[in-house]
Amino acid sequence: MTNNIEKLGRSVIAEVAEVMRHAFLTNPVLVSAFGGRTESHRRRQETMYRVIFDHFSGQLFGVRRGGSIVGVLGMTFWPDCEQDSFKSWTVLPRLLLVLRGLTPRIIDWHSTWAVHHPKRPHWHLGPVAVLPTAQRQGLGSQMVQQFCDHVDRNQAPGYLETDKLDNVTLYERFGFRVNKKADVLGVPNWFMWREPEGFESSSERECKQGYYKEMY
Known about the structure:
The protein has 216 residues and is of the alpha+beta class. Helices cover 45% and strands 23% of the residues. Strand 2 (59-65) and strand 3 form a beta hairpin.
């Protein structure tokens, strides 16, 4: 089934946050950061997402079914993706207010991610969120493919973080490769990089140039 992926505006941030709280409630790093997976934890996660996406500098896309958003895709070009940080002076005061005692753990989480964040041009993939009722129907794969098509057209690398080994396998199908792994709040996280389709590394170019020199 092919779904129509549309660009989302600021007016639907609350709905985006609701999708994400349902999609990510049991993600290991979020369970560690929030201390559980109850409805109370779910509501606090939703509040956090509202704050984050009020200041999101990237592009947001979504899939609707029956008029409601069931999938969310985000992508941000470097270095703007590094500015979407919990330590931003625009974001941190609101997080301190709404998350109270949880803020240090969440800052620690994103600080660890920041250490591993590449310092060269790329598109950052995230979030990729699908409501549980719409999962395992190819929607997540379709959104990841849209991201890959975008970076390939622009001949730019892609980057992401994930805390689920199953996701590593999924992203590898789209050409991402693990280049680092680290524990975040005691949870394994994988940092993945993807060169655009058609990209040649300098060593590959040198080998090809040497081959043609020998030929001619």
